[in-house]
Amino acid sequence: MTAARIAVPLALAVAFAFAALAAAPRAFEAQFLLAAQDDPAALADHAVARAFDADAAAREIDAALAADDADLAMSFLDLARERNLPIDPALAEKVERANAGIATAARTLGSFARGLVVGEAADISGLAGTAVGDLFVLGDVRDALREGTRLAAGRDGDELVLGLACVGLAVTAGTYATVGAAVPARVGLSVVKTARKTGRLGAPMAAWIDRSLREVVDWTALKRAVNGASIAEPAAAMRGAREAVKVEKAQELVRLVGDVGRVQASAGTRAAFDGLKLAEGSRDMSRIARLAAAKGGKTRAILKLAGRGAIVLTVGTFNLATWLFWAAVTLLGFVSSLKRMTERITERYCARRRLRRARCVLGAPLALVPSHGAAA
């Protein structure tokens, strides 16, 4: 039994130990991500922990203030405070001063009026104006007539805004019928329309809404309702536009805009805009709504830091499972090598002990060995 037979499993055990040390952190992270893949708040916390420290907080707050985005600066300040990161008191005071009511009061009335008349909103006041106009049908009528007139005249019109306006007419009727139960969807529709008009709607989300509208809206009936003859009678045109919506097929779209409304209620209008730019469909928007419900005003900072990593796994589940597999392989290899090394050490010890006993027996004095004559 040579020492080489022990050295081989020992070397393998050392190699597997180093491999396990290298794979273990990634394996633990993979296990956490797989367990948290349906929990946006946990995914967001994990992503933020890797990318957010005191220096990043100060840098992001300064950048937001330089861009005149006091809301984002406050979101980063709240996130830093939640994570107990040190922030320069002067910088924190600057953020709070930028968000003070005195600083924003001058913009409130003009923003509300623009939202009510034009249907564009950049903040909560503008969205309030847009929502008021939509709630009383004025906004949806305005958008439907404007886009329908353009399409009927052969000019460029936005079919997505037209379709959303028609769905809005149906949702508004539902809002009154349910005494406000559909208000989140009504507000969400206003946010989505505004995002589309102002270029804040991401291309994947726009494509998803367009596909949904193709199923929800009877475009042939809608075109008849908004043609040149019908526009002379707005009431009839709006009735026809509302009837062109297949309400029974609109559940997924209504669920989407309802989630947008919940994001706006929990985290603010700009967070809803950021979510619409980031999301690729109703499932993503549902995750953002859950994140906003858990994180509130910190949602904008989290979405900016983590992007889609805050709501979905950015690493494939196959890759994560592979890390877990190799971690298990290295652990199994380490244990097997230790087991084999222990067995060979035991075998060597037992063999040496037997050899010692044999030598002791062979080297015993002859006087101690009884002769045949004495026995006789």
Low-confidence stretches: none
Number of helices: 20
**Mean pLDDT value:** 77
Strand content: under 5%
Number of strands: 0
Structural class: mainly alpha
What order do the helices and strands follow? HHHHHHHHHHHHHHHHHHHH
Distance between the termini: 44 Å
Please estimate the helix content: over 70%
**Rg for CA atoms:** 35 Å
Shape: elongated
Largest beta-sheet characterization: none
Describe the structure.
- By secondary structure, the protein is mainly α.
- Among the domains are: 1-37 and 317-362; 107-249, no CATH class.
- It is built from 20 helices and no strands.
- The protein has helices spanning 4-35, 40-51, 54-66, 70-82, 89-98, 101-117, 124-135, 138-152, 159-177, 183-197, 203-216, 219-225, 228-231, 234-243, 251-267, 269-278, 282-295, 299-306, 317-362, 372-375.
- α2 (40-51) packs across α18 (299-306) and α3 runs antiparallel to α4.
- 37% of the residues are buried.
Write out key terms for the chains shown.
single chain, 376 residues, mainly alpha, 20 helices, 78% helix, elongated
Short characterization:
It is built from 20 helices and no strands.
